[in-house]
Amino acid sequence: MKRTFVLDACALIALLAGEPGAEKIRDIVQEAIDGIITLKMNQINLLEVYYCIINIYGQHEADKALEKIKEFPVEIIVGLADDVFKEAGRIKSKYKIPLGDSIAVAESSTGEATLVTSDYKDFQKIETFEKINVSWFR
Q: Are 49 and 63 within 8 A, CB to CB?
């Protein structure tokens, strides 16, 4: 069975903006293209990417970026399965992190996937106490 990785919003933002760590995300995307791994992202986390691009570059650039992202080998999970819903609620309540982050954690933990992020502030404390695998890209 292929390993599964869940992308946090900051991973796609780093890739699109050429930020530090983008090369590691490029490698992960290439592994998905080559069929070595499976990539997933919840639509809520994709929304975070979209509104960040709108805030910095405007609506037109955000729409172009969204079309580019749709070409990536990333399964966009629409909605929340019951187990993800409950786990995201538990994580959000316990760790007081942003909703999108709690969804990314829940998608990775319930799907036995590795979370790809650089957000040490919110995820490092969770990694210490919860059963999640994190791949830090910077």
A: no
Residue 72 neighbours by CB distance under 10 Å: 16
Residue type, 35: G
Residue 107 CA to residue 5 CA, distance in Å, equals 10
| Owning domain of residue 35 | 3-136
Which amino acid appears at position 107 of this protein?
E
How much is the pLDDT for 91?
A: 97
Residue 127: which CATH number? 3.40.50.1010
**Which residues lie below 8 Å from residue 61, measured CB to CB, with a gap of 6+?**
53, 54
Residue showing tokens 């490092």: 124
Element (H, E) at 116: strand 114-117
Give the tokens for residue 15: 């890739």
**Is the pTM value of this prediction over 0.70?**
yes
Domain count for the chain, please give it: 1
| Percent of the chain as helix, strand, coil, to the nearest 5 | 60, 15, 20
Please tell me the predicted confidence (pLDDT) of residue 1: 82
